[in-house]
């Protein structure tokens, strides 16, 4: 069984590298505007749409990002509330409730894609396409442009602006996400993911004469592709990527996992090129990959052990924990997917995380709580990891008694304040939201599981929302006004309380001159720095969350295996 | 204040225009283009991979069905909304590993399996008594199919070797030897069983 995982992971990482490398090179050129065809085409597009193409200071850039997302929020809320009267609604679904629409609108705009509703019984094809698919693209594009802006902060010297936000958004959607999605959508449709405008198809059941089964259809493949490439994760159907019509085979499963990590990995390569030192990109990628492999090993060890309560009943335990899993992916394919989707802030699931063994659940929780920086969301994982790199050089600077520098830029008081603001916003949201929910009656009504696992369900919900992952311990009854509102706020502030400080940091860095490299400069392209960076991520995360994890999955593990 | 306000107003107007165009491209042109191409090139896959018998659709190759009579292979337990294998209510049980309801459900499934096959004392394969993630899992492990072979053979009046050979014939091997585990498609196996029993 371990050999299955080893070979699958090897294949996965090899294919990922082979695809992310050229994509990273493409993105570096695209966002530098150095393709020969770019200037004329882009000038034409800007003129056509009457967009101002000037270089923007960070404040104007941030304003553009915020307004663009605010419009997306209002449009998506409106589409859901008016669903009954809109086209492409063969099922005849009515309006979504106000609190659920509020939650879902924030969820898809913030790239979280937390879903309080069940897709196949709530959302029309029209809302799935014009509302949800659109935000799958635009929220991912938002993440990309913020990451690119921060890269420019390091690459530019004594510059006033960070680039043009409209142009960057156009490049991210039309030059990266749309072509990739088109290819992946067609591949998936060929392999069994449905793509149709019909509501459903009814078949006469073979097993029980006279009875029928109704199978849902919809424009699924097109949404599936960007759901994964944009690390969105919101399923067309309730079962998400566990549904056979979203993820029909082990092969589609491999494609879907690759799609999740593709852009986050490519951004590391793009970064190396944009700052003119490719080793810097490799360093970040190495830290991410090592953390990922550690998490995967712990996860798989937990999941391949049998549930002792079930073996006591006479169940053959050697296949591992199969509750909430699909057989076609195998235990290796289910485990790899779960670790990929929570390392990246994707949140698509091909197994039900609520039924994971306690320590496997802990891995998924911890990866989200670390801030979604192990590859992380499209863009957001990259800028999150760069924040930790700033912390790492700051801590190292304190140890060796020098002003911290990263990539030739002095890290000063303002930069550290912005970094800490961004890094502390999400833990505050997670811990305060969880604490509030486990003391208020409306919050206590949510968990489906008793004891420590019920606490984990609440902790998972807030970890997922504030870090914009979107997966769930889905037993929690979260489609209530209480959870819809509280989780909605956690998603919104978990997104934009990071994005705005990151853009401020980018602006501050871009304005600085470069300091020359001397023999006393801390090198940030070495194995030592990989270790420092991993240490920064793990120590900040562990210090913040260990008490909460002890109350949830750790307590559950000790109880389940009778360890006192 | 006025320059700031005018910057905001100009930015908002530009954001709105950009949003509208990208919405039409990604929310309408893109999914409709994919639909058109998929319907043209992969009509079978894009419409649910339906399985037909004598020209009638009897299910999907990808979606499991509920089989409860002892003369057919039973699929995995399903936790879909309302009833098992409800195509419009996908989902798992969401029971944690220590939840008492999980133990109770598994114990009840083991009782039902043993009641239908009293002589079978082998440990029950885990997939036969645990709910899948989607509730629509179309597969069984080969072990779970073999575990039921004697019961099915007895009820159908077929030789056990014949039934085991059918299982072997319908076992799907992992692609490249590493993508996935060996699985048996329950609907395909039951259709083959019916054909064999009828002949």
TrEMBL record, chain A:
InterPro entries: KdpA (IPR004623). It is a multi-pass membrane protein. The keyword Transport applies. GO terms for molecular function: P-type potassium transmembrane transporter activity; potassium ion binding. Keywords: Cell membrane, Ion transport, Membrane, Potassium, Potassium transport, Transmembrane, Transmembrane helix, Transport. It holds the Pfam family KdpA. GO terms for cellular component: plasma membrane. It is found in: Cell membrane. The chain crosses the membrane at residues 58-79, 91-109, 129-151, 172-194, 254-275, 282-302, 329-349, 356-375, 381-400, 421-440, 486-506, 527-548. Its main location: membrane. The system is composed of three essential subunits: KdpA, KdpB and KdpC. Belongs to the KdpA family. PANTHER family: POTASSIUM-TRANSPORTING ATPASE A CHAIN (PTHR30607), POTASSIUM-TRANSPORTING ATPASE POTASSIUM-BINDING SUBUNIT (PTHR30607:SF2). Part of the high-affinity ATP-driven potassium transport (or Kdp) system, which catalyzes the hydrolysis of ATP coupled with the electrogenic transport of potassium into the cytoplasm. This subunit binds the extracellular potassium ions and delivers the ions to the membrane domain of KdpB through an intramembrane tunnel. This is Potassium-transporting ATPase potassium-binding subunit. It comes from Gulbenkiania indica.
UniProtKB/TrEMBL annotation, chain B:
InterPro entries: KdpC. It comes from the Bacteria. It is found in: Cell membrane. The keyword ATP-binding applies. The keyword Cell membrane applies. GO terms for molecular function: ATP binding; P-type potassium transmembrane transporter activity. The chain crosses the membrane at residues 18-42. Keywords: ATP-binding, Cell membrane, Ion transport, Membrane, Nucleotide-binding, Potassium, Potassium transport, Transmembrane, Transmembrane helix, Transport. It is a single-pass membrane protein. Its main location: membrane. GO terms for cellular component: plasma membrane. Part of the high-affinity ATP-driven potassium transport (or Kdp) system, which catalyzes the hydrolysis of ATP coupled with the electrogenic transport of potassium into the cytoplasm. This subunit acts as a catalytic chaperone that increases the ATP-binding affinity of the ATP-hydrolyzing subunit KdpB by the formation of a transient KdpB/KdpC/ATP ternary complex. NCBIfam families: kdpC, PRK00315.1. HAMAP family: KdpC. Belongs to the KdpC family. The system is composed of three essential subunits: KdpA, KdpB and KdpC. PANTHER family: POTASSIUM-TRANSPORTING ATPASE C CHAIN, POTASSIUM-TRANSPORTING ATPASE KDPC SUBUNIT. This is Potassium-transporting ATPase KdpC subunit.
């Amino acid at each position: 069984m371990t050999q299955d995982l080893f070979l699958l992971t090897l294949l996965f990482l090899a294919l990922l590298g082979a695809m992310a490398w050229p994509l990273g090179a493409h993105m570096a050129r695209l966002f530098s505007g150095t393709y020969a065809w770019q200037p004329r085409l882009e000038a034409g597009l800007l003129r056509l749409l009457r967009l101002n193409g000037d270089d923007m200071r960070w404040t104007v850039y941030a304003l553009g990002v915020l307004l663009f997302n605010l419009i997306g929020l209002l449009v998506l809320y409106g589409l859901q509330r008016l669903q009954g009267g809109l086209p492409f609604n063969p099922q005849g679904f009515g309006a979504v409730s106000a609190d659920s629409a509020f939650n879902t609108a924030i969820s898809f705009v913030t790239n979280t894609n937390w879903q309080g509703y069940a897709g196949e019984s709530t959302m029309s094809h029209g809302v799935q396409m014009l509302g949800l698919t659109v935000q799958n693209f635009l929220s991912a594009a938002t993440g990309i442009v913020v990451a690119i802006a921060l890269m420019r902060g390091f690459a530019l010297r004594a510059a006033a602006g960070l680039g043009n936000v409209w142009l960057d958004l156009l490049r991210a959607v039309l030059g990266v996400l749309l072509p990739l999605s088109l290819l992946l959508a067609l591949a998936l449709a060929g392999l069994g993911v449905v793509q149709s405008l019909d509501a459903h198809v009814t078949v006469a059941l073979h097993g029980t004469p006279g009875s029928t089964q109704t199978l849902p259809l919809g424009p699924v493949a097109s949404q599936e592709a960007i759901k994964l490439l944009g690390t969105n994760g919101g399923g067309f159907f309730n079962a998400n990527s566990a549904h056979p019509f979203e993820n029909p085979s082990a092969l589609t499963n491999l494609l879907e996992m690759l799609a999740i990590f593709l852009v986050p990995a490519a951004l590391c390569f793009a970064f190396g090129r944009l700052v003119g030192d490719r080793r810097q990109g490799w360093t970040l990628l190495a830290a991410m990959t090592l953390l990922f492999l550690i998490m995967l090993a712990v996860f798989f060890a937990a999941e391949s052990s049998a549930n002792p309560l079930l073996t006591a009943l006479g169940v053959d335990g050697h296949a591992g924990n199969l509750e909430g899993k699909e057989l076609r992916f195998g235990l290796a394919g289910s485990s790899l997917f779960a670790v990929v989707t929570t390392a990246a802030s994707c949140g698509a699931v091909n197994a039900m995380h609520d039924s994971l063994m306690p320590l496997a659940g802990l891995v998924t929780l911890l990866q989200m709580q670390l801030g979604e920086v192990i590859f992380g969301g499209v863009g957001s994982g990259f800028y999150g990891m760069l924040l930790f790199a700033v912390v790492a050089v700051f801590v190292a600077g304190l140890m060796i008694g020098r002003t911290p520098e990263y990539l030739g830029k002095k890290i000063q008081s303002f930069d550290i304040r912005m970094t800490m603001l961004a890094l502390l916003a999400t833990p505050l949201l997670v811990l305060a939201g969880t604490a509030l929910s486990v003391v208020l009656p409306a919050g206590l009504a949510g968990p489906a599981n008793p004891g420590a696992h019920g606490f984990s369900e609440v902790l998972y919900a807030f970890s997922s929302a504030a870090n914009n992952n979107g997966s769930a311990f889905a037993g929690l009854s979260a489609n209530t006004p209480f959870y819809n509102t509280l989780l909605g706020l956690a998603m919104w502030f978990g997104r934009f309380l990071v994005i705005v400080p990151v853009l401020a940091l980018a602006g501050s860095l871009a304005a600085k001159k470069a300091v020359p490299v001397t023999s006393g400069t801390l090198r940030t392209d070495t194995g030592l720095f990989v270790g420092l960076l991993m240490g920064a991520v793990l120590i900040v995360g562990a210090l913040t969350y260990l008490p909460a994890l002890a109350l949830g999955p750790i307590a559950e593990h000790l109880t389940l295996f009778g360890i006192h | 204040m006025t320059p700031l306000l005018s910057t905001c107003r100009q930015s908002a107007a530009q954001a709105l225009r950009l949003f509208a165009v990208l919405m039409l491209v990604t929310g309408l042109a893109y999914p409709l283009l994919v639909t058109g191409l998929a319907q043209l090139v992969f009509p079978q896959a894009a419409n649910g991979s339906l399985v037909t018998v004598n020209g009638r659709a009897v299910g999907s190759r990808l979606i499991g069905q509920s089989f409860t009579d002892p003369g057919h292979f039973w699929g995995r337990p399903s936790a879909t909304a309302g009833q098992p294998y409800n195509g419009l209510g996908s989902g798992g049980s969401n029971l944690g590993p220590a939840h008492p309801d999980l133990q109770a459900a598994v114990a009840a499934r083991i009782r039902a399996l043993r009641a239908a096959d009293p002589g079978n004392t082998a440990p029950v394969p885990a997939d036969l008594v645990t709910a899948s993630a989607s509730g629509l899992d179309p597969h069984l492990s080969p072990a779970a199919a073999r575990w039921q072979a004697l019961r099915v053979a007895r009820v159908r009046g077929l030789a056990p070797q014949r039934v085991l050979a059918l299982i072997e014939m319908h076992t799907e091997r992992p692609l490249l030897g590493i993508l996935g585990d060996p699985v048996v498609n329950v609907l395909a196996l039951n259709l083959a069983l019916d054909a064999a029993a009828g002949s």
